[in-house]
Structure formats: structure tokens, C-alpha cells
Amino acid sequence: MAELDDDRLIWMFTQMVRVREFEERVKRTFEDHPGVIRGHTHLADGAEASIVGSLATLRDGDQLIATYRCHGYPIVLGTDTKAIMAEIYGRRDGLCGGYGGSMHLADPERGFLGTSGIVGQGIPQATGVAFAAQLRKQGQVVLAFFGDGASKQGAFHESLNLASLWKLPIVFVMENNNYNVGTRVEQEDANAAVGEPLSVKAKAYSMPGVTVDGGDPVAVYDAVEPAVERARSGEGPTLVESKVYRLSAHGNIIAPPGVPLHYPEHEAITVFGNSEEYEAALRGDPVPRFRMRLVEEGVLDPQRADEIMQEAREEMDGAVQFALNSPFPEPEAALNHVYA
Amino acid sequence: MALSREVALDLLQTMWRIRAFEERVAVLKRSLQVHGLIHLSIGGEGVAAGVCRQLRSDDVVYSGHRAHGHAIAKGVSMNAVMAELMGKADGCCQGFGGSMHLVDRDQGFLGATGVVGGNLPMALGSALTAELGGGDEIAVVFFGDGAVQSGHFHETVNLAALWQAPLIFVCENNGVAEFTPRSAHTVVERVSDVVAPYGFESETVDGGDAASVWETFAGALTAARAGRGPVLLECLTHRRRGHYEGDAQAYREALEEEQWQAHDPLARLERRALDEGWLDESAAKAIADHAGAQVEEAVAFARASPLPDPKLAAELVYAPA
Amino acid sequence: MAREIPYIAAAQEAIFQEMGRDDTVLFYGQDVAPSDDHDFVKAYGRERVRVSPISETAEIGMAVGLALAGYRPVVELLMAEFMLVAMNQVVNEAPRLRYMSGGRVKVPIVLKAGYGFTAGWAGQHTGSIYSLFAGVPGLKVALPATAADAKGLMTSAIRDDNPVVYLINYLLVLEPGDVPEGEHVVPFGEAAIRREGSDVTIVATGWTVGRALAAAEALAAEGIEAEVIDPRTLAPLDMPAILTSVGKTGHVVLVDQGTRHASAASIIAAEIAEHGFSSLKAPIKLVTALDATVAYSEPMEAYLMPNEEKIQAAVRQVLGQAPVAA
């Protein structure tokens, strides 16, 4: 197992902060610049440790497919955050030219092959990418990111069976945040309903399944890294259940044009009236938690921590400015890219 | 609950009816008096009879494309099934459906389906209506091992467990799906291992031992009726003929006659009944002959039945307002 | 160098030869080569030729992933209706990912299946549902009607950088045809004039092409010369060729095995009405399957389907030689 030295730990903290600052600005755009973001966005605030801990295990050439809650992954992989924000704002200089929007980011050159807006449907696609990796024999590994809601989809079942059967080099990373929009996992999952971790589902495919605290990036790294090595050595897939808490609602409200969009409160409060749960999650916020730990362990001094956070704020403020000033695509461009 | 003479004879009669029916259909198919895609249940009689003979008409059964045996055991008239296979107006579906789409609402046979796995969520729906109605009727869904890898199975299993639905999953695991062996479909040999994470009761039995199927299913039925949730009954069985009639089966080793004899549910139950003294040779032969006669009646009935009026084809598309 | 081989063999031959030309071409699906003795496995090995379980969402979803990662999978789905199990991957993912990424990715996949087997395969295995797919931007749809086209269109499908729904008609599987031995490419978007004539234009797809040709022979004996056009692909659709013919004949009969409400014929009729109206000397006539699930029993199944007699009757109608049918 590769060691995480101080530099690596500081890098992890930096990425977590960058993702958080980015997501906050997406959310703030609804207040500060109403009408700029259209449609549906989904934020990863609260899941930074899981995203960073997972991606820290990858090396050049590895690939991933994610869900519509996808901003975090390209940020960590090094995609230009100005381009990501411009995409969310629907601008010509967006990562995908304004064609996809928040739910459909892609940066294939950095291994981020894309997303699906349909729950669970990126899992079989990631399985196919792993099939390709197996054929190439260059030791590539693929991460499939999805939520707990996706684990009830037939696509989940079919993909895990095939990956196990063909020993594909893939790690299935389930970010279990206990909610599927406004439904709690115990209401829809037979395992959760009896208090079992969702990782038990792996047994149905003869593959290892582990559950990890997704709020601790080192713990996530320690769980995903051996799974990645297992996949790389041809021993097949693993299911990693990473327990996270998303700090925002599922997404911004859905409303017809003309009604201002915004982020409502978390469903724990709006649907279940459970403010205590939400308050507890805020207190356990993984970003300040990790900062505190690194400072306490002497890995990071507080001044450097502040600098990192300031740099992240400036970077993301710059992303917003760039995106606001970025032109819209020409309308006729809508007919491009239909066919290769 | 041990097998009694009464039950054994009833099972034998049902199994003989299915065997005679299917063998007759094989002949009719070769001479094209029955056409289209036909999948026979020879070898599966023990499961069909052992399960369906314990059900009431308000218990609903769903099957897949290999459904003749299930339909007959559930009480669908052989006349109606044979006429359906011949595409006649007196077929159970008036000639509209054919072999893979048999339905008989009165007998609780909600039917055969043509897309592997598609019947599972439907059966769940029926099981839920039983719950809603407050009675103790249950639903049974028959499927093969090939369906277990389909997404439909997974989605149905999770919900059946979550909602403790009175649904009995009967998997006929014959080790081969269409033309490929189970090992090409999954690393997990036993279907019961696939549902293990969902915590519901499951049993594996020798599908060629009709008595064992009957006894085990009786337990599952009691549990389901008592509201203890879904049950999986995995019946290890053997498909005697090809996937469909006309399948040359180059992909399988030629079946050894001893292997077949070792599995044949009909021969085995008959031997046991004879050993137990529940009947003698001549009574056993009488059952077989009677079944054959009933099948011939069905053939005559079907032949005498008229073809449907072609114009009907454009009707029945929608339920009337 | 052409020789006669059956339609189904021609389609397979294209896949086999393309796999030889391009290492990135893969072939998998249910029951595809379960035995190691199969020609494909002997030539290309078990990595590139695989058998999959009954898992359409995964089979098609994986194809998308493979394509995103630089491969060119051909997925054998057996029956068009089985694609419906994975409709999301076929309609909502494969053809849309390139667009949504602003052109950053491409999804070169071929989804191969059969359709239209009106031989008692009954309601769930017999549909002609290709217009469901032809209406999706980003998807291409090929319907070979001859053995040569089965090979040529498959070759084009594999080389195309877009997702292609390639559908063989099960009624044609054993139809022999002259098929070139070597490389044979039939481009997408180019209709074939199967028979020249100047009295009426008949556009037909798949198995109905043969019915239209038979009807044309019968009509020729009465002095009616029909031009029979086979579009070969529904998306892209060669409307220029059809419109040129309409300009020549002024009379149109559109034949399709799909149900009227969602047939290729309906799409073509609208295009002619808009772009070829001034050429028309009579209303357009459609000869399609009736709007019902395909019945099992033979007389009912036949009643629902287009056939030579219905095509002939339609021709006479548009030529004003028969009273308008009820």
C-alpha cells in the first residue's frame, strides 16, 4: 500500500478546499446572479473527502465515469475550473462548449470520460471502459462513481455480475449519502431497511465489498487503493461503499422558466423535519475536520492552511468572473456535433 | 409434510398430462401443425406439478417462454392450450398470443412472457395486490437461471424483500440459458447465493424429485401466506430438449440416457409410488394412457376449432372506453 | 469477385472481415460463439469475441463505455425488442453523449438485431420498431434488404463513428444473393433503385422490397411500370433520390412493415408532402402493418401485414384505376 506523505496529504486538503469553494460559488450564483444558471445542478459539498480520497489512488491513464453530481472529479483531476464554471453557465468557452451543462461534464484527455444524467446508467458504461482497459493490457484501472440510489437499478446488478465474471479492472465506488432525492435509503433498500451496510450486495457477485467513512479522505484512500491494486493486477472488481453526507439539498429547485431557482434546505429538514441530523452533519463537515487533523498532527501549519484556502477562493472567484464574461455560443452551433 | 398417496397420484397425473402434451406438441411442430417459437418443458414436470398443484385459483402464476407445463399444472385446459398453439379461435387467447403468451385469468395464470426476466416485476405487482386486498393469496413466478443476471431480477428482489411481498420465486436452474452454460453468464453457481444478501428465505432442491419439490414448496407456501415475505425456491433441473424446437443443440454433449433416467421426474415418482405400493404397474400405465387420451382429445378439439376471423387482428388493441 | 451466400452469412462475413482489418472491433452478445470452435473465436480469440449473460442494459452500456475508450464494439442483441429493455442506453446515452460533450467524445457502436419475423413468433418478437430509433438524432439506422447490402451496410456501420442500429429482417436470413468476397462498402444515406419505371414510385424497406418487386412484375404485365426504391438506411435517409423519382412518376406508394402510426412510410410521406408536392398527381398511399401488436395465429398475423396484393391495389389506386378502398 502506497504511503501518503505530508505533501500528498496537503495536496488532498487543497483539492478538498478547491471543490468546496467551487461548489459554494455555484450555489451562490443563484443568489448573486439569478437567471445565469438554468436547469438542474447537483453539488458535492460534503463529499469532498470521498472524491479526493478515491481519485488520489489513480495514476495517469486511469479513467472514470461519474454521475450528474460531477463537478468535483474534474476539479481534482486538474481541469480548468474556469471552463467548468463556464459550462455550468452555458457559455461557448465551457468545458463542453455549453452543450452539456452541469450534469454532463467530460474531460476525456484527463481520463474523465463522462457522466450519465440517468441514475445508475453510467455503471455499465464504466464497465465497458474497464473491458477496454483489459483489452489494452496497459494496467489501466477504471473507477465507476454512483450513489446509493443507483444500487437498486438493474444496471448495477448486470454490471457487477459481468465485471466479476470477466474480472474487469474496475472499482465500483458507491457514495452512500443516505438519500435518494427526498427518500431515505431505509425506505427503498432492503439491506438498509434491516440496518445492513450496502456493501453486502457485493456478495451476490462473489466480489469483495467494503464500507468506509467517506468523510475521512485517508480512510477512503486506504479502502480504494487496495481495490485499485487488486483490479490492476487482474484479480477483478471491488465494491466500495463510501458513507458521505451531502451538505446541500439534492439539487436546486425545479421550476418553470420565470421562477427564480435556488437551493432549498436539505431534505432531512424539509421532508423529515430532522434538523438534528443536519446540524450534526455540519459539525462533522469533512473539510474543516481534515484541516484540524493535519494541523494537529503537524503536517500543515495554520498559516499555510489559510493560504491554501485563500488561493482556492481566488481561483473560484476568477472562475465565476471568467464564466460571467464568457460569450454564449452561436445559436446555429446547436446543429453541430450531432454526428461524428 | 410428507408425501401421501393421494398427493403422489395427483402429481403423477399432472406430470403425465404435461409429458404427453409436450411430446405430442414436438411431433405436431415437426409437421408444422403447430408453428412459431415453441419451448418444451420436458424434464420440468416435477417442478410445475409440485408447485402449481398446491395453489388456489386466486394465487397468481407467471412464467416465461417455457410455460406449457406451468399452465397445464395451474389448471389451464389442455384443449385451450393446444388450440392456442394451433392458432385457433378457441385457444386460451383466441390465437392472439401463441406458445409464449398463454393467459387464463380464471385459473390465475397471468401468463407466459417472451422477454427473459420481464415477468418478475409483474409478478411482484400481483403479489402486492394480494397484500392490498388483505387476503392470503400469493403470487409465484417461474424463471430460469438465465434470468437471474438480468436487471429485472435485481430490482424485483430488492423490492420484494423491502416490502415483504408474498411472492415465491421459483427458479428452474438447468445450468444452461438459451445456448450457453451458466458458467458463461456468472461466477455464482447457486441462485440462492445471489439473493442471500437480501435475507429472504431460500431453498435449493432437486427439481427432478417431484416429492421433494412438493414438500419444500409446501413450506414456502405456508411462510408466504403467513406474511413472512418472499421466498426463493431454486430447483436444480434438466432441460431434456433444445432451447426451442429445431435447436440442434450442438453446444451440449449428447445427453446420456442414464443421466436422463437419473433426472426424469416422472420416472422417479412413478418408481417411488410403485415401491410404496401406492399403485401397481397396471394402474401406472392407466394414468399414462389416460393422459395420452386427454391429449388426443385436445388435439381433436384444436383441429376442429376454426381459425380466427382475420379482421379481429386489428381489434383488441385497446380496452374499450 | 462475387458469389452467392445467404443474407445472414453476409452480415457475419462483414463483421468477421472488419475484425481482421481493425483490432479495435469487438463482437459480443448473448449466445455469440459459446464454443471455442467457432470461427470468430478461432480467428480473434476470447478477448475480442465474448458471450454475455442476459443483461441488455449492461451489454449496450458497456458498448458505450468501450467506444468512449477507443474501441468499436458490435453487440449482438438478437431481437430488436430486446433493445427495449435497455432503451435508455440506446436512445438517451449512446447518441447523445457526443453532443452533450460538445463533440469531445464519440460513440462508435453497432447494435445488431433482427426484426419482423412474421412466422408465428408472436407479439413480443415480431415488431418492426426501427422508426423509434430513426427519430433519434445521433443514431443511424440501417435496414439491409439483400445479402450484398447486409455485408456492405454492416461494413459501413462498423466504420461509422456514430452509434448504428443495424437490423436484419428475419424473413430474409436464408435469402441468397451475390456478395463480393472482399471488402464491400455500401454507404449510408444512399438509396438503391431496385427497379426502374416511370409510372409510379414504390418506396419499400427490408423484406417489403421483395414484395414490392413481385408486385411490380405483376403490374408490368398490365402495362404499369413501377420504380422500386430501397432507402437502405432510414437515418440518414436519402430523400433526394426519392424526390427525384417522385418528380419522374408523380405517383407514390410507400411500403413498410412497421405499424402505420410509427412507420418509415409516415416519415417519408411527410417529406414528400412538403418538398415534392408540386410533382404529385395523386395523394400518397401508405401500405404498412396495421396498428396492432402482431398476432400469433396465421390468418390474423397475415391480415396485419403488407403484402403483394395490398401493394398492387395501392398502385392501382394512386393511378386512379381502382375505386378508393374503404
What is the CA-based Rg of chain B, rounded? 19 Å
Topology order of chain C in helix (H) and strand (E) letters = EHEHEHEHHHEHEHEEEEHEEHEHEHH
Q: What is the terminal-to-terminal distance of chain C?
A: 50 Å
Tell me the number of strands of chain C. 14
Which strands sit side by side, in order, in the main sheet of chain B?
A: 2-1-3-4-8-7
The number of helical segments of chain B is: 11
Largest sheet of chain B: 6 strands, parallel
Q: Order of strands across the biggest sheet of chain C?
A: 3-2-4-5-7-6-12
Number of helices of chain C: 13
Q: Outline of chain B, from the CA principal axes?
A: globular
| Mean pLDDT value of chain B | 91
| CATH level-4 homologous superfamily of the largest domain in chain C | Thiamin diphosphate (ThDP)-binding fold, Pyr/PP domains
Q: How would you sum up the major sheet of chain C?
A: 7 strands, mixed
CATH level-4 homologous superfamily of chain B? Thiamin diphosphate (ThDP)-binding fold, Pyr/PP domains
- Oligomer kind: heterotrimer
* Low-confidence residue ranges of chain B: none
Looking at the structure, the CATH topology of chain B is Rossmann fold
> Helicity of chain B, in percent?
40-55%
What topology emerges from the helices and strands here?
The complex is a heterotrimer of chains A (340), B (321) and C (326).
Chain A lengths: L5 H27 L15 H8 L7 E5 L4 H6 L3 H8 L23 E5 L5 H15 L5 E6 L6 H12 L4 E7 L2 E2 L2 E2 H4 L1 H4 L15 E5 L3 H16 L5 E6 L23 H4 L4 H9 L2 H11 L5 H24 L15
Helix pairs in contact in A: 1-2, 1-12, 1-13, 2-9, 4-13, 5-6
Chain B lengths: L4 H26 L14 H8 L7 E3 L5 H6 L4 H8 L23 E3 L7 H15 L5 E6 L6 H12 L4 E7 L2 E2 L2 E2 L9 H5 L5 E6 L3 H16 L5 E6 L20 H7 L1 H11 L5 H24 L17
Parallel strand pairs in B: 1-2, 1-3, 3-4, 4-8, 7-8
Antiparallel strand pairs in B: 5-6
Helix pairs in contact in B: 1-2, 1-10, 1-11, 2-8, 4-11, 5-6
Chain C lengths: L1 E5 H15 L3 E5 L9 H10 E3 L4 H13 L3 E8 H4 L3 H7 L3 H4 L9 E6 L14 H5 L5 E3 L4 H13 L4 E6 L6 E5 L11 E4 L4 E5 L2 H14 L5 E5 L2 E3 L3 H11 L2 E8 L4 H12 L9 E5 L8 H7 L3 H11 L8
Parallel strand pairs in C: 2-3, 2-4, 4-5, 5-7, 6-7, 10-11, 10-13, 13-14
Antiparallel strand pairs in C: 1-8, 6-12, 9-11
Helix pairs in contact in C: 1-8, 3-5, 9-13, 10-11
